[in-house]
Amino acid sequence: MLAPVILAASRSDKMRRFISAAPGTKQVVDRFIAGETVDQVVPVIEDAAAKGLEVTLDVVGEDITTPEQAADARDAYLELIERLKDLGLGTKAEMSVKLSMFGQSLDGGHELALANVRPVVEAAAAIGTTVTLDAEDHTTLDSMFAIHEELRKDFPQTGCVIQAYLFRTEDDARRLAAAGSRVRIVKGAYKEPASVAYQDKAEIDKAYVRILRILMEGEGYPMIGSHDPRLIAIAQELGRRAGRKLDEYEFQMLYGIRSEEHLRLAAEGHRMRVYTAYGTDWYGYFMRRLAEKPANLLFFGRSILTKG
Question: HSE-up of 88 (CA within 13 Å, CB side)?
Fold first, then answer.
């Protein structure tokens, strides 16, 4: 299995330098990263809106080692929200945030992350949109869920992410599938030990379907994060069985992957949201995209071999 090797490389400074310097890297990074600045990502948002798509925006960057860097991450999101407000795009774009960027792993990180993310959630609500808290490795989840619960007291539309490969997630889904909740389900993209997560793809897929059924039969708003045609079809069937209208759940897919499928689902009347990452600190995000799908790695390898 290549995925564990790639995920390990995502934390290696030596590999970061090698990948960044490779002549074919930019071509592949541009496939998954919409730009480095707010100005570069605005046309992507406008183009998506014109096609009947919505977006969720992720300012990439996870190597936060000081409170000052965490404050910079907060300010980057506040800048983004101000631009969305000026352009009248608030209802077409939400934000996804990783609490690691807001200082979660630092001393006093839980309180620091909550203090940094709250003004982002508040500013998002003021322009008619919301924020979803991304899931990271299993050691961070109790803190993430506690922050999610705290934010929902004032901003009940705040969403969160659950990962199908973790053993705990079915219980988390039952707790979260309540009225007013917004929950994105993904397979999971971090290297997790066998003590806490399924390792076999077939077992992960089965867990995904079990959890998706819990969400669809619940009272919240499921957000299906998957590019897998089989899981998309199963989600549609579970939605029908649960009596859900097409605007009572949504699909989410990554920018640069299966773009025609984005348009197909939107044309069928589904809400289709494109997870759109941008920023200069792209390495960790990029490596997880390679780990998720062998075709991405092959594409990257061919790009390196045919450049320079």
Answer: 0
Tens of pLDDT, residues 47-77: 999 999 999 999 987 678 999 999 999 999 9
Question: Which residues have a catalytic role annotated?
Answer: 134, 184
Q: What is the pLDDT of residue 162?
A: 98
End-to-end CA distance of the chain: 29
CB 277 within 8 A of CB 33: yes
DSSP string, 91-111: GGEEEEE-GGGGTTTSTTHHH
DSSP state of 269: T
Contacts of 250 (CB under 8 A, 6+ apart): 54, 221, 222, 223, 224, 270, 271, 272, 273
Beta bridge partners of 57: 95, 276
Cα→Cα distances 44→25, 57, 205, Å: 21, 11, 31
Say what the pLDDT of residue 286 is. 66
Q: In which residue are the tokens 């009572």 written?
A: 248
pTM higher than 0.70, yes or no?
yes
Angle, to 10 degrees, between the axis of helix 38-50 and the axis of helix 67-87? 40
Torsion angle of C-alpha atoms 56, 59, 61, 64, degrees rounded to 10: -110
Least confident of 2-11, 196-205, 260-269: 2-11
What is the spatial distance between Cα 23 and Cα 14, in angstroms, rounded to a whole number?
Answer: 16
Model confidence pLDDT, tens digit, residues 277-305: 998 776 666 666 666 655 555 544 554 44
Rounded to an integer, what distance in angstroms lies between the CA atom of residue 252 and that of residue 66? 32
Give yes or no for residue 133 having a pLDDT over 90.
yes
Written as six digits, the tokens of 261 are 């499928």
Please report where in the chains the tokens 């793809």 appear, as a residue.
201
Amino acid present at 239: G
